Amino acid sequence: MSGIYIHIPFCKQACHYCDFHFSTTHKKKEEMVQALVQEIHLRRAELADEPVETIYFGGGTPSILSTADVQQIIQAVYHCFEVIENPEITLEANPDDLSLAVLQLYKEMGINRLSIGVQSFFDDDLQLMNRAHSAAESWACLPIAQTLFDNITIDLIYGIPGMSLEKWQQNVQMALSLKIPHISSYALTVEPKTALHKMVSSGQVAQPSDQSAQEHFLYLTDALQAAGFIHYEISNFAREGYFSKNNSGYWLGKKYIGIGPSAHSYNGKMRSWNIANNSLYLKAIASGILPSESETLTFEDRYNEAIMTGLRTIWGVSLARIEAEFGIETLSHLQSQAQKYRDNGWLEIKEGQLVTTRAGKFMADGIASDLFLLHLK
Fold it and tell me: How far is CA 78 from CA 244, 265, 289, in A?
């Protein structure tokens, strides 16, 4: 099975923390939709032996497109690829874009999973992040969406400067009150070349506190697990049966194609990515050229990815897999490097899987980088 990711590179306005590729100029939106369709046709041979299990509209803000545009892209995927019966089709949306009429059209065209960018239920947080919607719009759209869609996820951001633990607890409890089956939650990070970076550098906004972020994260994990959610990936929590098939495919090493400017693809051996420039992307696609670069993953790359993705998930890192794919010497390296984290209670071995503990989850990326294979031959 494989997946198709479609990057919609447009937003109403720029969130202060975002470093994804997007444009707030929409003059070439219709031309972009046609280019996305054309790229799908150009790449129709890439998954000849892999049925498509998931279709994911990300961005940017996919809900900024007209429903006719979204339907045209879905139809192109079905025309060019073998798609399984009842695939997971996810669309990321902002609360201010979701009316009952739009939601009904989404459902009619086969979209069966919504990812709604709530981020916070407090207007002051949304204003700090320069979100386009209000807390009232989140509260208004979610009950309407639930009348049509069972499979909904919302995003929440923690570690916002000035956000107390009590306020974060209220955010989490409000999310739980909605009985949404999936929640994705991320720490606010200050990325280079973003408005937030400039605001922090100038002293306009305080630097996010790692200690506060960790407190928020630990409360989040405890509260959601107590409510019956499974913490299946560092930033993702779901009730049984509601894991994201699209994202799980990334973490489990399945093949996927990324359509659109800046989108990435993976075929098991190579990784490629499209140019992150709308004008150059449009020009290349119009000439029948794929504007992408690629790299063949080295032995070290494949091992490091197995460690990074494994430690972020409930499935962990299979020691048997490491030995089978990378050899006994590499397994010995992993066990040696991991021992100090087992000793301090951040890692443990369960049924042959190396997994992070509750205490280690917040540090998973840092632990993984220390386990990476750099110069071992």
Answer: 21, 19, 22
